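INFO  loader      accepted 1 record
INFO  loader      residues=346
INFO  predictor   begin
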Amino acid sequence: MKRLIIATLIALPSASALACATCGCTLSTDAATGYTANAGWYASLDYSFLHQNQLRTGTHSVPTAQVAAINDAGGDQEVERGTINRITTLGLTYAPNAVWSFRLTLPYVDRGHTTYASATNPVTPDQISGATVHGIGDVKLLLNYQGLLPTHNLGLQAGIKLPTGHYGGASADGSGIVGRHPAAFSSGPLSNNASPDNLLDTSLQAGTGSTDLIVGAYYYQAVSQNFDAFVNGQFQAAAQQKLNQPGEDFRPGNQATVSVGLRYQARPDITPQLQLNLSRRNRDQGALADTGNTAGTAVYLSPGLTMSVLKNMQLYGFVQLPVYSKLAGYQLFPRWTASVGASYAF
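INFO  predictor   done
INFO  writer      dumping tokens
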């Protein structure tokens, strides 16, 4: 049985510039409510919570003191404490027929970040600096094509991410502010620095300042009377950067995501499902990038549930549990993430 696809077509963390390469929500919410070839208008609202509170390098976690020890030996390594991301995404889809559909997603980013900066041991609470980011993130526009098969269960995607969110930071030489309204630290030692030395890292702003190209594909198929399966993938790469001058440049790393999953549809009103989500991101580049700490691979196991509460409305909830990560440098990583959402067909 065909079902409505009215959830966000996403491959986060691209729209919201999360603090590490592979720590964002990689859940396939388009598969959460099921794919369809039905024409019409659809709207969705998605909320994702992600608390990055574990320092990791390679495939294992590391204590704060071990990272600070790099500075004890004369190095210059930021000792991050934690980042809490709350991202609300509004989506609107129009499908004129069974072959084509057009999708717009608008994220709102609510982020809190704390760091010990380049602290040495012993790390103490008075060294903590904090910043908050509130605002619209980067908008995505996506085009879906499902005309390759008569069953319309194979789809191709192409799209663009626009630099609508605030972005930027301090220039590499510390002489000025670049970008558009970058957020600054509001508490702790870093907040007492004169501008631009009080600005939050470029990778933690609400937007990236880049125009990205997006391509993807998906396939879904019933595998028994009560089960259907899906596989999808998406690739995103920055094609143009507003931060493009020497000493003031930043380019987010290319990112690829792949998801596979099963949906159990014995009941029309409740659909348990399980996803496996893989994300790979390359290093950020440029003078404003933390290049050594921004690449990696992560795999999440994501159990969830979709409920049909009205004739044209569905609710869903998922928890993502990391089962593998291999991160470059030292990055904050979540122990779990959660997403809930609602979708409606007009």
